[in-house]
Amino acid sequence: MGVLDGKKGLVLGVANEKSIAWGVAQACRREGAELGFNYLGAALEKRVRPLAEKVGASFVAQLDVSDDAQLDDFFAQVERQWGELDFMVHSIAYANKDALKGNFRDTTRADFHLALDVSAYSFIACAQRAARLMRPGGAMLTMSYLGAVRAVPNYNVMGVAKAALESATRYLAHDLGPEGIRVNAISAGPIRTLAASGIGDFRKLMDKAARGSMLKRTVTQEEVGNAAVYLLSDWASGVTGEVHYVDAGFSVGAGDPGCA
Ligand code: NAD
Description:
single chain, 260 residues, seven-stranded parallel β-sheet, 7 helices, 41% helix
């Protein structure tokens, strides 16, 4: 018996076995969910399909979240194949590498638009389409980071995107609450992934996170996955509009001297 038995859910944002989305997918599968995935283009399809097979996924299709036509097509396919949707996990972000180092004040208009579009607006775009397939009890989840509420060196425009994402989480929760659909975010501590490798001095960020956290270590994809299971399950039926920290206590601690 798993807490997600009988539920069908999309996990958007698996790129490889290091992806946070993959940690979430494995935990959801362990708890009995039937899963669907997206991939961004042919190169990633080769990585995503074998992983999807490992967890017996019944739906895999292409989706670039910056393309409205692909969004419409993707969710139409979900509807044709599944009819209804119980949960959706959005674990997607992108910014130009140049914008993730140096001074925030040098952010260009183009880099701002790209980061905010792919990393924040895309949650709204997915949520409006997913909500049409959900009944009361449905749940949505996105992935944020502390850079939304603190100025973290090098995180720069992605911090602004995460602030927008966290705010969007609250507005979506407000809109969808009357329909019985919950919307939450997890703010994860730093984890070595493909996306994280684009952030300047990421190793330093990991070191600071480990030293400054209450548990004196960083967190894992599996730990984020387990927290995701709770937020997506009926155990969290009274929880919506929340940003839930899975960061080994870093954000609420005093940290070590010199920790950002
Ligand atoms: P990842 O590289 O494994 O995942 C990022 C995903 O975004 C990839 O699957 C990529 O294909 C997808 N993506 C990018 N642009 C896209 C587009 N236009 N359309 C569709 N998909 C697109 O890295 P990750 O660290 O697992 O990132 C997942 C989420 O977790 C992101 O929102 C990230 O900001 C967030 N997060 C990461 C950390 C960390 O330290 N790794 C910490 C907190 C939050």
